[in-house]
């Protein structure tokens, strides 16, 4: 009898104990955008639709895609302007759906590439009950030659947005999945964004200091959390408090502290951020070796640099003894962090102000493979200037998302150095 009472007590109390260390984010909003999941190929085969008024001589292809807990039928009708039909209301028929919108067409040689989008209703099994959501799917089809074959693929083009309350603070959160079936419960394939600095914005690009994968530890308020579970439809995210260090994701913005780091360059010299013996550090992230940029000869390999602006400023930085001769060169240090994957015959430039570094750990703090970016850092370790990434958030909801990188010119760098060195 006593054992039975203890068992019942555990059944009642244990869930309460578990809930005590968790917080829940609710994401009721479904937002369409033009990014998100990987693409998935569709297997197409000949099948005549019985309910669509299609001429007998017409060429058509049928396929099925997995979205949510069900399969949706799709029909591709050949012609000068191919038409794509999707069983958008998930009732097994095309007749009441209407064709998908073709919003872009491209021609590449003998290939015609078509882009379609269609709002569809998909079903999820959540806690034993069926829930339906309206989401956006995008399709890309390629036709090879006038009588050629078709390939078709699709991707899930919606994400969730909502709020999370922790210790009286309300954080904006977003959730997106890389899965084409839109199943958010598979934690390996999600990214969770949270407005940690409470500025009302989340940069959804990856990597981002406010976007986390499920295995990473998120610092929220005075505690650290990891994602415990997500409902299949993405409407509910449960996070558990953990006694682990938060995943370090620095804000690499003007006015923020640069991540402290000590590393050896290719000559074996030790160099640190922040610097202890110079007033200014210029951190260059580049996939190009200095020796590829050091010549003005347009026929050399630096001809393939990121942009003309990038090539020009890198060249001038490698010759600061000339281009910054009004300053004491000994007050400036350049750390050239290589971002390429592999290098044949790394060249270590023997310039006293230049430190060429090939270190993946340092790169994980300041950027990502193939990045091209510059930071100007003062002796206190504060980022005084950097290239900035921008995203037009409204355009991400359209068919033509806008974003890019605003690069510092050499004159910008020179002006910041003047402010640092002459203050």
In a nutshell, what does this entry contain?
The chain has 423 residues and is mainly beta.
Description:
- The chain is mainly β.
- It folds into 3 domains: 22-31 and 159-241, no CATH class; 38-156, no CATH class; 261-421, Glutaredoxin.
- Helix content is 13%, strand content 40%.
- It has helices at residues 2-20, 290-293, 308-317, 320-323, 360-366, 410-421; strands at 22-32, 40-41, 60-67, 70-77, 83-86, 101-108, 111-126, 129-144, 150-156, 158-166, 169-177, 190-194, 211-212, 218-220, 223-230, 236-241, 261-264, 270-273, 280-286, 332-338, 354-357, 373-378, 383-386, 388-392, 402-406.
- Strands 13-12-11-10-1-16-15-14 form an 8-stranded antiparallel β-sheet. The protein has a 5-stranded antiparallel β-sheet with strand order 2-9-8-7-6, with no helix packed on it. It has a 5-stranded mixed β-sheet with strand order 21-20-19-22-23, with helices on both faces.
- Strand 15 (223-230) and strand 16 form a beta hairpin.
- The longest helix is centred in the first third of the chain and has 19 residues, at 2-20.
């Amino acid at each position: 009898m006593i054992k039975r009472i203890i068992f019942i007590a555990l059944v009642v109390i244990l869930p309460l104990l578990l809930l005590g260390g968790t917080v829940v984010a609710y994401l009721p909003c479904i937002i369409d955008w033009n990014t998100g999941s990987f693409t998935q190929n569709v297997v197409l085969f000949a099948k005549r639709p019985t309910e669509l008024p299609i001429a007998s001589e017409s060429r058509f292809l049928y396929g099925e895609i997995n979205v949510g807990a069900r399969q949706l039928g799709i029909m591709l009708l050949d012609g000068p302007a191919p038409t794509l039909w999707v069983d958008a209301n998930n009732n097994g028929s095309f007749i009441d759906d209407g064709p998908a919108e073709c919003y872009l067409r491209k021609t590449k040689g003998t290939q015609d590439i078509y882009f379609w989008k269609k709002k569809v209703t998909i079903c999820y099994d959540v806690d034993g009950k069926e829930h339906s959501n309206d989401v956006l799917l995008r399709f890309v089809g390629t036709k090879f030659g006038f009588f050629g074959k078709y390939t078709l693929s699709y991707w899930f083009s919606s994400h969730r947005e909502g709020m999370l309350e922790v210790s009286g603070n309300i954080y904006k959160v977003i959730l997106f999945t890389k899965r084409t079936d839109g199943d958010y419960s598979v934690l390996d394939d999600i990214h969770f964004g949270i407005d940690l600095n409470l500025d009302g914005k989340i940069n959804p690009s990856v990597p981002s200091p406010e976007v986390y994968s499920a295995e990473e530890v998120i610092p929220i308020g005075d505690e650290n959390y990891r994602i415990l579970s997500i409902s299949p439809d993405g409407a509910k995210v449960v996070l558990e408090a953990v006694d682990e260090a938060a995943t370090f994701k620095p804000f690499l913005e003007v006015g923020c502290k640069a991540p402290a780091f000590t590393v050896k360059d290719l000559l074996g010299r030790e160099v640190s951020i922040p610097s202890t013996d110079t007033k200014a550090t210029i951190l260059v992230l580049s996939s190009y070796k200095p020796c590829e940029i050091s010549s003005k000869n347009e026929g050399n390999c630096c001809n393939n640099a990121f942009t003309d602006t990038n090539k020009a400023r890198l060249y001038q930085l490698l010759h600061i003894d000339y281009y910054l001769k009004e300053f004491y060169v000994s007050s400036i240090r350049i750390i050239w962090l290589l971002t390429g994957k592999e290098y044949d015959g790394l060249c270590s430039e023997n310039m006293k102000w230049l430190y060429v570094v090939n270190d993946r750990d340092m790169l994980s703090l300041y950027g990502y493979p193939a990045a091209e970016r510059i930071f100007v850092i003062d002796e206190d370790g504060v980022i005084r200037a950097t290239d900035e990434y921008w995203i037009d958030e409204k355009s991400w909801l359209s068919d033509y998302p806008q974003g890019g990188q605003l690069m510092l010119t050499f004159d910008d760098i020179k002006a910041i150095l003047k402010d640092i060195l002459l203050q």
